[in-house]
Write a structure and sequence with these properties.
Largest sheet: 5 strands, mixed
Order of helices and strands: EEEEEEEEEE
Structural class: mainly beta
Distance between the termini: 29 Å
Strand order of the largest sheet: 3-4-5-6-7
Number of strands: 10
Radius of gyration: 17 Å
Length: about 140
């Protein structure tokens, strides 16, 4: 689809994997399994990075690809931040974790994510924190 057609749903074409090949016009193919949300896609350092909240495994994961149409089954994946318990938080664990948006200015070697959290059982306000992930990819 041409960029000037982004607002035209009739111009959309499925992208999918069939007969060992990713191509336009193939049936749309899921690239993530399980429960997920809060996705962020950005170009970084000549690559494309997708981050998402992996709700099923309670963590924030990321994938690095050459282009959004790369073979997403073989693209590099890594867990970036783990969910954790209250009182057991550290540089890699956040209690009541959610989010994972890539902050502008990030690089693959020094990526910053906005991560949200709130302690619902105590009525704490919703908040967003900045997390630094070094050496992704």
């Amino acid at each position: 689809m041409r960029s000037d057609q982004i607002a035209n749903p009739a111009a959309y074409q499925p992208w999918g994997f069939r007969d060992g090949v990713w191509a336009w016009g193939n049936p749309a193919t899921p690239i993530l399994t399980g429960s997920f949300g809060e996705m962020s896609l950005r170009p970084l350092g000549g690559k494309w990075v997708l981050t998402w909240f992996n709700a099923g495994d309670y963590r924030i994961d990321g994938i690095i690809m050459d282009t959004p149409t790369s073979n997403l089954y073989t693209a590099y994946r890594q867990t970036l931040i783990y969910g954790g318990a209250w009182g057991a938080e550290d540089d890699n664990h956040v209690a009541q974790l959610y989010g994972g948006y890539i902050i502008p200015g990030s690089t693959l070697s020094d990526m910053h994510l906005s991560v949200s959290q709130w302690k619902t059982d105590a009525g704490w306000p919703y908040r967003v924190m900045q997390f630094r992930v070094r050496g992704f990819g």
